[in-house]
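Slides due. Your pick:
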Amino acid sequence: MNNETESQNCDFTSDLKLKGFKVYQINGDLSKIPVYSRRDFYKICINTSKSIIQYADRGIETDGTILFFGNPIIPYSWEIVSGEHEGYACVFTEEFLRAKDRSDALHESPLFKIEGTPIFSLCTEQKNFIDSLFQKMIKEYQTDYVFKDDLMRSYINLIIHESMKMQPSENFFKHKNASSRITSLFLELLERQFPVETKDQPLALKTPQDYAQSLSVHVNHLNRSVKEITGKSTTAHITERIIGEAKALLQHTNWSIADIGYSLGFEYPSYFNNYFKRLTGTIPKSLRM
């Protein structure tokens, strides 16, 4: 990769981290497609090409126009086999999309969860419609409209709902394995702990051992499975979810910081403060300034 491309990727990723959202056109030049050291963002992409997509423990062959949903939980790779490579894509954080609504986690959506189907084959009419939504997003993204973020969320949700009405692709050529199943059960169980709705009772499950016991598996088996399928440790998933919930509670409730810490399993406020600062680089109080 040349220096110019590296600079473009750096600018792209920095902009995305700052705003939580980015939309762009794919013009057929693979060297200009943003490259991430790790995928921390959700992605929706409409693409026309003949490709092989490795998604978790499955392989998916595509030929024509497809709509793809990727998330930071499940690793994937994309190989262009032949033909044109063009389309549109947007990437965004869960915090961006759920800025005003933390009731549902994105990875629980049929489009993003491990046992869901992330790829849809599009007919010409569907392609034209989805293309038009991406084109509108790109146009609006370049404006100074004060409610631009809300408009972007509306377009993303429209694409998601239109996709859920489509028939999913059936071109999987490898079935899910035991690791995928146990990982899916772990993520589902993790998500059941949230959102936290009372400040009087702490989280029931806080460690990999807690989850392994609830799933009736050895903690080493759980850790190996989660790492194999998602590329991240069990502890990392638990930590990221707790931090995400902490931010939501700090921003959307009037609970005291001590109460928030207790509800998330921290017996003392100092434990919560140190944990939050170590993982985010800032103190909980800063989210309320």
User: Anything to note?
Assistant: The CA atoms of residues 104 and 142 lie 29 Å apart.
